[in-house]
Amino acid sequence: MRDQTQTIHHPAQRNSPPIIEVDRVNLWYGDTHALKDVSFDLHPQEILAFIGPSGCGKSTALKCLNRMHDDTRGVRITGTIRMDGADIQGADIDPPLHRRKFGWVAQKPNPFPTTVFENVAYAARLHGLTASKADLAAHVEDCLRRAMLWDEVKDDLHGIAGTDLSGGQQQRLCIARALGTKPDVLLMDEPTGSIDPIATARIEELLLTLRQDHSVVIVTHSMMQARRIADRVAYFHLGALVEIGPTELMFESPRDRRVADFIAGKFG
Length: 268
Ligand SMILES: Nc1ncnc2c1ncn2[C@@H]1O[C@H](COP(=O)(O)OP(=O)(O)OP(=O)(O)O)[C@@H](O)[C@H]1O
What we know:
By secondary structure, the protein is of the alpha/beta class. It has a single domain, classed as Rossmann fold, CATH 3.40.50. The chain has 11 helices and 10 strands. Helix 4 runs parallel beside helix 7 (167-179) and helix 5 (133-146) crosses helix 7. The longest helix is centred in the middle third of the chain and has 14 residues, at 133-146. Mean pLDDT is 93; it is low at 1-9. The chain binds adenosine-5'-triphosphate. Adenosine-5'-triphosphate (ATP) is lined by residues 29, 32, 34, 52, 54-60, 72. This is Phosphate import ATP-binding protein PstB.
């Protein structure tokens, strides 16, 4: 259970301007109306959790933020998403540059079949984010430290393959890799959905630390997880964002009956 101090000092309650504003977004996959008039904002240094029954649009909403739907055939989107005040669909936005502001972490750890060092160095090298070999090494170390993996891999960075690590370590490696582009926002689609409880606890601890420098949007099926780590929770139902609010409020006194029933485990 989070302490009072954390709740009181939550940044979204301090009127910090949002980094992302989503305004009446609708999305169709062909004839499937997957998002219906979805609006929410995301603040710096907050963890926002998306919860709701299967197929209600959580992953779809997550992918809108970094324009991951750009290459999916048959997708149509209306509404506006602004990041730092600029329309992310605007003519002046370079999609690859926009995407680089986000780190993506999937449910199943998916390290590259190469060394731990190369997994993390890849993006920085690709985008020329570091000036020298020493810079790159320092950047890789920083990402691995921030992903709480450094101590476990530092002795064999160039030997051990990412795919040889344990499941929990692989997921922390994927988080380190996601930090590689120096993103503002981390998007996580059930990041602990396929790892054990101890590894999950480490990742939750890690997310609470990363929140100091990043906004995090996490899709989770675990109500306990949302309660433990999220500053705010958004509840989706059949493509609509039904209710969003501070975590304690959402769990203790939701306004919408569907949220109360879902949290109580009556469906889902
Ligand atoms: N690429 C796609 N093409 C067609 N329909 C899709 C596609 N991706 C998702 N959908 C449909 O859009 C709706 C929302 O799916 P989405 O994956 O966003 O839900 P979700 O809440 O994340 O579900 P889950 O909790 O099961 O992961 C569902 O009806 C799904 O079948």
